[in-house]
């Protein structure tokens, strides 16, 4: 056998991608499986965005660009941060990367030395802990269950902070729970962070636009605590808002020193993000924004349906969410009802084999006894899937 690095052996492949692959495999084998694992909108990329990319190809915009993104896209990102978030950045405070995933990867590589701690609230996006491990850091997981709407409290954050804390991650609205922190909750977290000036903060705003309460403006930690600006990285991207997951464009705004270090990591790994995708992302950020509203309406309708349907299934309890295209029901009662099913992983296997429904077990996100259901699929599929789960629940 070939010896692999300790680094790579310390991480696992993405569980969500594994479930999606398993569902596809079963479908290809002719089995009737409804996939509720998807981490991407089920809508097509809006046409004006595609047309911008096609024009870029035809005009020969197909070569290397600046590592940190084209000046035009960086300008569009700066304008977006100004328009949507009330944040002011200079070009040297912006880095465009190959997806939001690479933004966080660059950050972990730029920041962490062996033993450095990163505070990650659970349930978490599957990739945070593993990217921290790949960088030699130590994930410090802070648990938040349904009773606290899957959000950590200021007291919990304080208890998790140490002299070695280098980074604190906030993802709101959250993948997988769909919950968003309010401004007052962020202010309380910020008050704790003020006592730890050596810790940086990453706010992952990827689902910023997918929120039901459109009357209240989106807020991240910097809106609540502007004094934390010089140590906060704002991470965002076009993947979820504009249904552009395959284009691989994410971006970060933050202190020039950190952005420069992240850019150095990127310059030695991928170089610039795809030139054509950058033109498309610019069109997304600068063009009409009504495509977001159309998706939002569909997601909200499906959310309302699924939450209600889940809550009448014996052994399942589901909180209504604040946004995203996920719901995160507690399924421990259902696990108890099913013979031979002892945990959420076994439940996911049982449902895929016995009910033809693929969902992701909560333990993949750091919380046993729950499951993530993606509503980024048709109403028809959702109705069928709910009937199938209800049928096995008895
Ligand atoms: N952050 C969160 C919370 C996510 O859920 C995702 C995608 O699943 C990402 C970042 C990264 O998205 P991408 O790399 O596709 O831009």
TrEMBL record:
Region forming the signal peptide: none
CDD domains: AAT_like (cd00609)
One Pfam family linked to the record: Aminotran_1_2
Keywords associated with the record: Aminotransferase, Pyridoxal phosphate, Transferase
GO terms, molecular function: L-aspartate:2-oxoglutarate aminotransferase activity
Assigned EC number: 2.6.1.-
Domain Aminotransferase class I/classII large: 31-389
Cofactors named for this entry: pyridoxal 5'-phosphate
Stated family: Belongs to the class-I pyridoxal-phosphate-dependent aminotransferase family.
Name under which the protein is recorded: Aminotransferase
Organism in which the protein naturally occurs: Thiohalocapsa halophila
